[in-house]
Amino acid sequence: MSGQTLTDRIAAAQYSLTGSEVCRAVCKATTHEQTAPKKKHLEYLIQATQESNVNVPQMADTLMERAGNASWVVVFKALITTHHLMVHGNERFLQFLASRNTLFNLSNFLDRTGSHGLDMSTFIRRYSRYLNEKAFAYRQMSFDFGRVKKGSEGVMRTMSVEKLLKGMPTLQSQIDALLDFEVNPKDLNNGVINACFLLLFKDLIKLYACYNDGIINLWQILFFLTI
């Protein structure tokens, strides 16, 4: 399916009538087009999270609503947009997601219609689990592993032993959820999943850097305990 559908245009128009430009941008970023969310819509939403007068809960609720769509394309793009904002938006967006008792409930999602529907449904279920785990990790640690400073003066390298013993299992669970995505090159056959894969790949690099810092910190602690 190419181009915006009539349903996409109606959804965006409804939010225009209510005066919610942020919700309209969410709809524009999560159309039925089998392409990645457009950069201009993502950049608008990122900037919106920086504005004190923007209703972040309403933005998040609109993304949750789009993730409840029957189309794998709309759902996948809603997850990608959410992930993008978790990484690049103001931290209060991630704080709000982490404060919710439930985030994405897509463990049974299945789209049997259209091209790629069945295959992409599998990745949507895995991807939603990872985003849930990312939000849970923030709730547990009060910071995002992807955003913290890395290296010799990084958060995981200088963390106290008590917090490190809590943080390492939490970090491991997030890494495990990401690796469970298990995509093969042949599955990267459309712009939607390609956009998802790029975000996950960048997250994995940051998570492994944190994990490496945590392991070094643990070794240093063990060394000092033995001397």
From TrEMBL:
Annotated InterPro entries: ANTH_dom (IPR011417), ANTH_dom_sf (IPR014712), AP180-like (IPR045192), ENTH (IPR013809), ENTH_VHS (IPR008942)
GO cellular component: clathrin-coated pit; clathrin-coated vesicle; extrinsic component of presynaptic endocytic zone membrane; synaptic vesicle
GO biological process terms, semicolon-separated: clathrin coat assembly; clathrin-dependent endocytosis; synaptic vesicle budding from presynaptic endocytic zone membrane
GO molecular function, one term: SNARE binding
Domain (ENTH) ranges: 14-145
SUPFAM superfamilies named among the record's database cross-references: ENTH/VHS domain, GAT-like domain
Keywords associated with the record: Cell membrane, Membrane, Phosphoprotein
Localization of this protein: Cell membrane
Pfam families the UniProt entry points to: ANTH (PF07651)
Protein family membership: Belongs to the PICALM/SNAP91 family.
Protein name per the record: ENTH domain-containing protein
Organism listed in the record: Amphilophus citrinellus
